[in-house]
């Protein structure tokens, strides 16, 4: 069985992390397969939204620690190689994908697993799921964008507490703290996430891609720079077929039929 499952239905590319016995901890093979799946999501016009989730009782426990030889006398491990070649490119791919990504966190999301979820656009989590910056438990630093996303989403005090203490944050607290979009009943997670992804897949795909660009840029921009960017992105959005369809549908009092063009 492959460590990443990929299926496509009604414009949604569903990607499932699939090493349930190891809480879907990342291996190099998983990174490679994820790279391919995200390239497909980016390249194929029929794919208009992505749904990322995990198989079994966990979402993802971060790096597979059994791949690291920490025996006495073993050579020092240069973790920048793994971060630079696997985790950073993954976060960049998720953020740059010009299509919306829904993440359904079905269980514990730890280490890089938590932060990969945060790099997605809309995060739903089962009520029994939790988020864990487990890095400090093994003497590491939040990676995969954790040190970027956390203070921006939950504020400096809570970000520092999460990063230093490495305690589990429940899905409900994650929602209340503004870390994720919503916590939902366990039994409803996939249904809700699929419905959300399908709704996005039927939407104005090019416009959504530009929304991602605008909100991501706002994290580092001044108001002036952001206003200029909004002007430029709106120009681009205004050239899309979906914009014309949206306005026509409004004026004709009907539901728009967006084509993602
Ligand atoms: O190295 C680099 O490339 C640098 C990059 C680092 C990025 C990172 O992600 S560093 C952080 C790595 N992750 C962790 O430190 C989390 C480790 N896991 C846990 O702390 C716990 O498993 C959880 C809190 C996530 C869940 O606990 P629990 O009690 O629900 O489950 P468990 O019994 O600990 O785990 C179930 C199985 O999954 C178990 O295997 P076994 O004994 O049944 O055969 C456990 O060993 C395995 N597992 C869980 N996490 C990992 C893992 N195996 C390898 N690597 C893991 N990260």
What do you see in this structure?
With 261 residues, the protein is α/β, with parallel strands linked by helices. It folds into two domains: 4-201, 2-enoyl-CoA Hydratase, Chain A, domain 1 (Alpha-Beta Complex), CATH 3.90.226; 205-251, Lyase 2-enoyl-coa Hydratase, Chain  A, domain 2 (Orthogonal Bundle). The chain contains ten helices and ten strands. The protein has a six-stranded mixed β-sheet, with helices on both faces. The longest helix has 18 residues, at 79-96. The chain binds ligand T3D. Residues 22-23, 25, 61-66, 68, 79, 82-83, 108, 110-112, 132, 134-135, 137-138, 140, 143 line the site of ligand T3D.
Q: Any key phrases for this structure?
A:
261 residues, alpha/beta, 2-enoyl-CoA Hydratase, Chain A, domain 1, Lyase 2-enoyl-coa Hydratase, Chain  A, domain 2, 2 domains, six-stranded mixed β-sheet, four-stranded mixed β-sheet, binds ligand T3D
CATH class of the largest domain: Alpha Beta
Which oligomerization state do the chains in this entry correspond to?
single chain
Low-pLDDT runs: none
Main pleated-sheet profile: 6 strands, mixed
Question: Which geometry do the CA atoms define?
Answer: globular
**What is the CATH homologous superfamily assignment of the largest domain?**
2-enoyl-CoA Hydratase, Chain A, domain 1
**CATH fold descriptor of the largest domain:** 2-enoyl-CoA Hydratase, Chain A, domain 1
* Sequence of secondary-structure elements: EEHEEHEEHEEHHEHEHHHH
What small-molecule ligands were found?
A: ligand T3D
Please give the number of β-strands.
Answer: 10
The computed structural class is: alpha/beta
Total domain count: 2
């Amino acid at each position: 069985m492959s460590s990443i499952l990929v299926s496509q239905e009604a414009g949604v590319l569903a990607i499932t992390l699939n090493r349930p016995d190891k809480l879907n901890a990342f291996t190099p093979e998983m990174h490679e397969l994820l790279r391919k799946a995200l390239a497909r999501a980016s390249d194929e016009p029929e794919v208009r939204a992505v749904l990322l989730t995990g198989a079994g009782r966990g979402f993802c426990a971060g790096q597979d620690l059994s791949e690291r030889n920490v025996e006495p006398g073993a050579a020092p491990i240069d973790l920048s190689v793994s971060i630079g070649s696997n985790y950073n490119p993954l976060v960049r791919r998720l953020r740059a994908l010009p299509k919306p990504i829904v993440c359904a966190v079905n269980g514990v999301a730890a280490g890089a697993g938590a932060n990969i979820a945060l790099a997605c656009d809309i995060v739903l989590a089962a009520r029994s799921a939790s988020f864990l910056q487990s890095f400090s438990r093994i003497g590491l630093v939040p990676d995969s964008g954790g040190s970027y996303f956390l203070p921006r989403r939950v504020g400096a005090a809570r970000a520092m507490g999460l990063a230093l203490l490495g305690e589990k944050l429940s899905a409900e607290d994650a929602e209340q703290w503004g870390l994720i979009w919503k916590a939902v009943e366990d039994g409803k997670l996939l249904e809700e996430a699929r419905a959300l992804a399908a709704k996005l897949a039927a939407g104005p795909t090019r416009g959504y891609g530009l929304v991602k660009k605008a909100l991501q840029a706002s994290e580092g921009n001044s108001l002036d720079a952001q206003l200029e960017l909004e002007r430029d992105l709106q120009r681009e959005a205004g050239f899309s077929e979906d914009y014309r369809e949206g306005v026509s549908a409004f004026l004709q009092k009907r539901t728009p039929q967006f084509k993602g063009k």
